[in-house]
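Researcher: Please predict.
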Amino acid sequence: MDYSQIAYEVRDRILTITLDRPDVLNAFTAQMMYELVDAFDRADADDDIRAVIVTGRGRGFCAGADLSAGASSFDARAEEAVVARPRTEGETPRDGGGRLSLRIFDCTKPVIAAINGPAAGVGITMTLPMDIRLASEQARLGFVFARRGLVPEAASSWFLPRLVGISRAAEWIYTGRMFPAAEALEAGLVRSVHPPAELLPAARALATEIAENTSALSVSLSRQLLWRMLGASHPMEAHRADSRAVYQLGQMADVREGVMSFLEKRPPRFVLSPQDDRPEIFPDWEEPRFH
């Protein structure tokens, strides 16, 4: 796919995806959704990519949905609507933000959001399935749906309470107000707040720490464990899965290399691929379908 609304750049084993509509604060469109989903497909297929950073071009991260169609912006029957319309006859309409969030949820690489400016609506909900969020001091965030007559989308009613608790999530959702990065930091929504010029370097430093020092397969399985266990009914589910992982990984090259590099006091040279070498640690997992 050729990209017109995002930029895709790989450097030093780190992919940076940049939302690239700076003249409209990177407002979200159905086209941007399809491009982002494709970018994450490419990232998962490329063993050279060890971490993904998502940021915005210009002074905004993402101002939310593109409202240039006016009152019809969210009416899927309208040709100019921002929402993703069914591509085939009989297909059930699906929220485009949710398609993106679920794709990020399934990503095999760690994903870091570098929120460089205003992030409202889908501009903030798209970051919730990302693993770590950093924000600029100039960022303002808002779950503004109730002020537009909508409900929170992008599966954010699942993600947000798990990140900040039900009370804080309810306050932000019910008021729809914009709030500063400092409040997001205090609530645990973002990991750290930085001067604008230091935001991307901080995100890259974090991504580099992952890329240079860890096993890609280990991180990929760890990501799967962390996200899937959020919905587990008992810690026994985690015990079963991580027991399978420890048993199988213990017989594989990266664990041997991790131990020997530590004992020999040298950098590790991990070789296993999340694509090709992943052991099955969730044999009973059934991927939910959208009906």
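Model: The mean pLDDT is 94.
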